[in-house]
Amino acid sequence: MGYTLKVRPAARADAAAIAAIYAHYVRNSMISFEVDPPDAEELAARMDHILPHYPFLVAEQDGIVAGYAYAARLYERAAYRWAAEATVYVAHGQHRQGIGAALYRTLIAALGEQGFQAVVGKITLPNAASVRLHESFGFVRCGILSKVGYKMGSWYDVGLYQLDLGTRPARPLETRPFA
User: Are 69 and 86 in contact (CB under 8 A)?
Assistant: First the structure.
């Protein structure tokens, strides 16, 4: 079981591995509300849109991408620019090895260094593993969107989980790009 886990910034060359990880969740679960998995080209375009404004990370396990996490704009309005939405996915069959935690630890630290004041996770419910992961980092459930997603023959709730990163200064500095 001695594996090496490395968290690093994602590159366009990772798009195919990221697409493969994500496709499992799109096809087989309600965790993502997408119904058609995006291909590597679409994932690369999404990465280009996110970077360098927000972190986009991969976790490599012995050189193979075993998970990814990224942050993105929470909402479009300018006043939301100090809050980010966070997402994490771990390759099917790779759970409970600390991959999601390693990704989130790095993602949250990067967002704090960039000057973000809050990070929000939106979790399709039920999803005990994701709730546990978020709560282990101090996220607090701050709301629920009731039956807003329909997939696989059922309606699903989305839990809103928030982690405060900053002190909410009276005049916040603009956030910095992800380095």
Answer: yes
Q: Which domains, and CATH codes, for the chain?
A: 5-164 (3.40.630.30)
Q: Can you read off the two tokens belonging to residue 126?
A: 């039920």
The average pLDDT across 66-73 equals 98
Encoded amino acid at 17, one letter: A
| Burial of 119 (C-beta count, 10 Å sphere; 0-12/13-18/19+) | buried
The DSSP code sequence of 74-135 is S-SSGGGTTEEEEEEEE-TT--SSSHHHHHHHHHHHHHHHHT--EEEEEEEES-HHHHHHHH
DSSP-derived letter for residue 21 is: H
Mean pLDDT, the chain, whole residue set? 95
Does the pTM exceed 0.70?
A: yes
And the tokens for 128? Answer: 């005990």
Q: Which residues of 30-48 are buried (b: 16+ CB within 10 A; e: fewer)?
A: bbbeeeebbebeebbebbe
